[in-house]
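A common beginner's mistake is to predict each chain separately and then try to dock the pieces by hand. The better habit, illustrated here, is to supply every component at once so that their relative placement is modeled jointly.
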Amino acid sequence: MISNFISFVHKDQIVEIKNLNPNETLLNYIREKLKKTGTKEGCAEGGCGACTVVLGELKNNEISYKAINSCITLLPTVQGKQLILVEDLISKDGSLHPVQKAMIDYHGSQCGFCTPGFVMALFSMFKQYSKFNNGIIKDSIAGNLCRCTGYQPIIKAAESLKNKNKIDHFSKNIKNTIKLLKKINNKSIAIHKRGKRYFAPRYVQELKKILKKNIDANFLSGGTDLSLSITKERKDINSIIYMNSIHELNYINNNNKYIEVGASTPLIDFEYYIKKYYPNFTKILKRYGSPQIRNVGTIAGNIATASPIGDCLPLLLSLNAQVVLQGLKKNKILFLDDFFINYRKTKLKKGQFIHSVRIPLFTKNIFKAYKVSKRFDDDISSVCAAFNLEVVKNKIEFARIAYGGMAAIPKRAKFCERILLNSFINNETIHKAKKALEKDFKPISDMRASGLYRMEVAKNLLEKCCIEIKQKKLIGLYA
Amino acid sequence: MLKEKKENFINEKRPHESGKKHVSGRASYTDDIPELPGTLFGAIGWSKKAHAIIKKINLGEVIKSEGVIAVVTNNDIEGRNDVGAVYNGDPIFPEKRNIMDSHYLR
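With all components supplied together, the output reads:
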């Protein structure tokens, strides 16, 4: 069924929005149309978490509660989901939710502006995890900024929730919510409004039909990059195809040679899966962005955006990943190595879309990845480096190295690889390989880092990697 | 009587007086106040050069622009053109020289 209006569940009711502007953000809708001002606008770019709301999504007859940044979420993408705002946490009898109570009891608010966002981030954690350790607590609030409390009271509030009864008015009412969600989540969306078009297909076949007629459409996944052209550049996006509504593309397969990740698979699911194979991939993804970002962002989106500081990209390059492209007629598989042409330019042609990504399994190799940024969590890389090495008796028998933040595109360090190949890991090799990086890269200076600094960091990360392999231990503050 | 009161007050955790409002999204901030119909909006004109001497400001086109009700410069300030709490030193509008990058011009 194709519908020209969206439906979602809010406060135990189905809400329908007709004639919506596909460029409207969820935050604007909440504040200006619903007139619920508890959800705040801070940065308007998905960085501060003040606008955090929770979306309930039906998954295997259960609801998963995902924190998202409403400021960069386009309103039509809430189709088929349950919207939960900070105002909705209080029960009908006026009693506070355990998360809200904990935030008061442990003095988690001072000026209070960021508080609704923290409450919602913690609410999502409270609902998603049956048990949570300090790692989960810190990750859950990594996407929320607070300038008053110094975070300790908020962390203590979260810790106090460990022993709290999990029953709240959402769990008491879950059967009804699931019933409502099932009523509305079986439709595709096609909206035409004053020259603006928005499509949310549910199947690949449907996507192809839409693409044929809308060859210039922008693909939208998490929108963590695309939405900024609306919120920051004040531009209009006239034609949008939403990819994350295609459940067919939300999968992770493994044939023991490679892992295939569908284009609409959220990063948060992938980071959980890949941990077993490449623990460093998960480590980088935790710092790729906050849960609010990873809940919606995808690997395919990261690849299509082709930003030189997209943190998945150097990792995927060093793992020799392939991109599976589908066109209207033909399908094509490209090595990621050949995919990036220039700054934010890729080989993706009009009429093509990214279907999936294949990540080879190097079972004999050591895979290490590092990210250096000004802030530890939720920040853009100054330099990101990935090393895929096979080392036999201290001799490097295979080397694939790639860097982010060092060139206009995420790029391999081929000169450096050549030095390392068939060499023994010793000071001389390290020295030569570091020198070779100067041939591979001429990094630019910008507000994040100077070119000289980037080069120095790139060299030092290489040295760190070699030393860690040789000494068989991790080095550093965050090791 | 007095002793009991003291004990209740000191060493006792008091919740933030606005805590309940904060955690439930009911605390109202400037941006949360509903806009009245006809609300005017201010926009700031920034200088493009740091520490430059201002010879003249031509605002003719700005005033003519659609929807512009008024343009305010230092000439419109009748009192003190400064927000320094104790001493002067934080001018609102520059007079002869803008003292920092992107100082307000209008």
